[in-house]
Amino acid sequence: MTKREPIFNVPGGVLATLAVLIMVHIALSLMSPQQFEWWVLALAFIPARYAGFAAELPGGATASVTSFVTHMAVHADLVHLGFNAAWLLAFGSVLCARIGNLRFLAFSILGGITGALLFLLLNPGLAAPVIGASGAISAMMGGVMRFLFNAIDRGEGYLLREDPRAIPSMSLAESLKDRRVVLASLVFVGVNLLAIVGFGKFGESGAIAWEAHIGGYVFGLCAFGAFDSATHNIPPPASEFD
Q1: Please, how many CA atoms are within 13 Å of residue 12, restricted to the half-sphere of its CB?
Q2: Exposed/middle/buried for 213, CB within 10 Å: 0-12, 13-18, 19+?
Q3: The domain spanning residue 100 has which CATH number?
């Protein structure tokens, strides 16, 4: 009997994440302009909150804590949401199928928080709001880099869709020495740095928060091993008697 693969093979953790992003966007779109502005700012990550202005911004002191996570659920418009949804489905599905739903959600949230922290470090006191799941999705990209090229080398790229857990992963040291991982990482960083000169804006004023992207990606690349549940796929160290 021929095995029939599903056309759409999206893990539950990814579907749940996508559902939250869509529901938040719909809820915000149904608000009045005044309500919309208040809630976007209350949910957004704003460095100025940590420079003594938390009480003057929507959400107050509570948002100083919650916005590390809530900013990931808000998107500027349908284009912004659609772009992130596409990358979430592409990279998130592979990663979630490998490490499981709960680890995927924890990994993604921590990646987004790391991106926000780097943005804060490089933009202290900035009043501009940061929104979007791009930092978390960048972390997913970084994580997938740890086993993507092993699948390609083995001629088993199909496993990225069918069974990512069957692909051996690289250690962090191996990843940092692999020319393809290094090149892909440099391209990722380079494309994001183009945002400094205005490349990749959403609308008239919505620029890319490249700092959050890079922070998320570095987290994903470095922290993947701590979340990888497919440890049996890591090749054992060579014996001196082999």
Answers
A1: 4
A2: buried
A3: 1.20.1540.10
Q: Which domain holds residue 76?
A: 12-226
- Cβ contacts of 3-7, under 8 Å, gap ≥ 24: 5/161, 5/162
In the numeric block, which tokens belong to residue 152? 């390609």
Predicted pLDDT at 69:
98
Residue 240 belongs to some domain of the structure = no
pLDDT tens by residue, 40-79: 999 999 999 999 999 999 999 999 999 999 999 999 999 9
Question: What 3-state class would DSSP assign to 130?
Answer: strand
Q: What is the pLDDT of residues 117-164, one digit of tens each?
A: 999 999 999 999 999 999 999 999 999 999 999 999 989 888 998 999
Q: In the structure, how many helices (H) and strands (E) does the chain have?
A: 11, 0
State both tokens at 125.
């006191």
| Domain assignment of residue 66, yes or no | yes
d(CA 127, CA 150): 43
Which pair of structure tokens corresponds to residue 175? 């990843």
- Measured CA to CA, the distance from residue 236 to residue 238 in angstroms comes to 6
In a domain, 232, yes or no: no
Considering the domain boundaries, does residue 239 fall inside one? no
Q: What is the C-alpha separation between 199 and 195, in angstroms, rounded?
A: 5
CA–CA gap between residue 17 and residue 10 (Å, rounded): 11
Report the domain count for the chain. Answer: 1
pLDDT at 231: 58
